Amino acid sequence: MNADQFESFIQFKYNHEKWSAFMSAKYGATYFQRTGLFKNDRYSDSSLGEGEEIGFKTYGVKSGFTYKLTERHWLSAHGSFMKRPPVLQNVFINPRENNSVVPNIQSETNSTVDLNYFLRLPKLTGRLTGFYTRFQNHGCEFLFCRCWCWLRLCPRGAYRIR
Fold it and tell me: Would you call 89 helix, strand, or coil by DSSP?
């Protein structure tokens, strides 16, 4: 298995007496390729040699804002949207035996937002947080069945792995 990855990141920050804010962004590229070292009789077309290179372009943005009502009471909000490549084990249907790739595989998408209230008193410190997170295009699950095979369950279908 070959995996190449590149990522870049930038962040801007601003602090003021009563408030602060930040914004950051990232960009990345990830490439996966399987190289079969042996020919498998069940997959004679796709087991030996280099398979196709699968590439994912990813990006993300994140921002946050904090406002100090007083020195003892703060409000903050953060949000992000990110596209991440799937993990290597979720790209290939059966990497031990062939070069087959999960059809229509996409980058994972994560979006989140959170709101916070901070309380700082002499004898009491607290934080109240509410958040929402959403994961989309998340990877596959593995399942061992009675037919002595592995099944890979993906959002776009099930694939049998012997």
Answer: helix
pLDDT of residue 87: 85
Percentage of the chain beyond pLDDT 70 is 85
Rounded to an integer, what distance in angstroms lies between the CA atom of residue 36 and that of residue 55?
Answer: 19
Nearest to 117 by CA among 79, 76, 78, 72: 76
CB 36 within 8 A of CB 51: yes
Cα gap 23→63, rounded to integer Å: 4
Q: Which SS3 state, helix, strand or coil, does residue 42 take?
A: helix
- Cβ neighbours for 72, distance < 8 A, ≥ 6 positions apart: 119, 120, 121
Residue 91: other Cβ atoms inside 10 A: 22
d(CA 15, CA 57): 32
* Model pLDDT for residues 3-27, shown as the tens digit of each residue: 899 999 999 999 999 999 999 999 9
